Amino acid sequence: MNAIQTNNAPAAIGPYSQAIRTGNLVFVSGQLPIDPATGQFAVGGIKELTRQSLTNMQHILREAGASMADVVKTTVFLADMADFSAMNEVYAEFFSEPFPARSAVAIKTLPKQARVEIECIAEVK
Question: Which pTM does this prediction carry?
Answer without folding.
Answer: 0.96
